[in-house]
Amino acid sequence: MLKKPLILGIETSCDETAASIIQDDVSGVPKILSNIISSQFDVHKKFGGVVPDLAARAHVEKIDFIVKEALFKGKKSINEIDAIAATAGPGLIVCLTVGLNFGKALSLCLQKPFIGVNHLEGHALSPKLHTNLDYPYLLLLISGGHSQFLSVSGLGNYKRLGTTIDDALGEAFDKTAKILGIEFPGGPMIEVLAKKGDPNKFNLPMPIINRGGCNFSFAGLKTAVVRFSKELKSDQDKFDLAASFQQTIEKIIFKKTQVAFAEYIKINGDVNKKLVVAGGVAANKCIRKCIEKVCEKNRFEVYFPQQDLCGDNAAMIAMVGLEKYKKKQFDKHDLEANPRWQLDEKAKFLKGAGVVL
Ligand code: KG4
Ligand code: ZN
């Protein structure tokens, strides 16, 4: 019997140092043999956000140990690995370079193929780590740096349908958390506080809700949160503002997802009605419920990554590595990090003042 490919994935695009070993399987869903993630919360907490140089230094200090740990937990020796996949972008250049160079060096020493991976493609394929999922599908990517709808026709084949023209959704959660005095990274805490609040207490705006196709805008919402935060008198008021913010996001997502469905159907026809929701914000249970509702209403099947694979991890990088390995899509060792690597490189830049939708 042929040996099933074993892939080592490495991820260092931002503030998580991660390594994972996955192995192909006849079921079509690979086995995750190990998935090690070391977060840098404590390094960046006092600065209220990720400090690139400190993040890069922490990656350098940990990468060797994290990769060894992934091999140890996966019960594999380095010589059994068939290919090394490492994130090449997008992300912080000083951070990307650490994992990328480590991966390239390993590949050279072992004489095994090297595969540079787009971090966003990792999120896009993350549900494939626990379920069979065929192309094409509609992707809603909601992370700390991106909020996009993409029509996915195959590996490396993306057409952007919509994007944010200002803040990313995770960024809006983190900024709202900061305004409410919650420590970095506060996004997930908004979900916790919102449970105790009245979602109808504050009337918040939904920017570009009836125009701009399935593009998003969250900056005006954040500004309204700042304004209301000045009137807060009690913890209950704080919970109410968190709940109102989250409910407003749900309404925006519901509406924009319906617009994206229509655009996706225009491209793919009234078949293959599948929506994949990925990225850190996909961990939010209220947002998941709202997406389930809009999918049910429009007869789309919905796929989420496992809860623990929504945030940054290396298993999703290995997943892309495995698909590229099967297609023999290998990279040379002079591949450079690309901090702005987009999934749809032909899509127009749509950020900043003066954007015409
Ligand atoms: O995908 P990810 O781990 O990193 C990027 O590639 O950006 O996403 C991180 C983002 C952060 O902004 C974080 O606040 C947000 O995902 N996030 C959440 C939740 N968990 C993580 N936002 C809302 N609710 C959550 N439960
Ligand atoms: Zn990410």
Task: Describe the protein in words.
By secondary structure, the chain is α/β, with parallel strands linked by helices. It has 2 domains: 6-129 and 309-326, ATPase, nucleotide binding domain (Nucleotidyltransferase, domain 5); 137-304, Nucleotidyltransferase, domain 5. 39% of the residues lie in helices and 18% in strands. The chain is built from 10 helices and 10 strands. It has helices spanning 41-44, 52-73, 93-110, 119-125, 169-179, 187-194, 219-229, 235-268, 285-297, 315-326, and strands spanning 6-11, 16-23, 31-39, 83-89, 114-118, 137-142, 147-154, 157-163, 274-278, 301-303. The strands form 2 sheets. It has a 5-stranded mixed beta sheet, with helices on both faces. A hairpin with a 4-residue loop joins strand 6 (137-142) and strand 7 (147-154). It is globular. The mean pLDDT is 95. Zinc ion binds at residues 119, 123, 143, 279, 312.
Helices and strands in order, then pairings?
Elements: E1 6-11, E2 16-23, E3 31-39, H1 41-44, H2 52-73, E4 83-89, H3 93-110, E5 114-118, H4 119-125, E6 137-142, E7 147-154, E8 157-163, H5 169-179, H6 187-194, H7 219-229, H8 235-268, E9 274-278, H9 285-297, E10 301-303, H10 315-326
Parallel strand pairs: 1-4, 4-5, 6-9, 9-10
Antiparallel strand pairs: 1-2, 2-3, 6-7, 7-8
Helix pairs in contact: 2-3, 4-10, 5-6, 5-7, 6-8, 8-9
The structure holds 5'-O-[(R)-(carboxyoxy)(hydroxy)phosphoryl]adenosine and zinc ion (ZN).
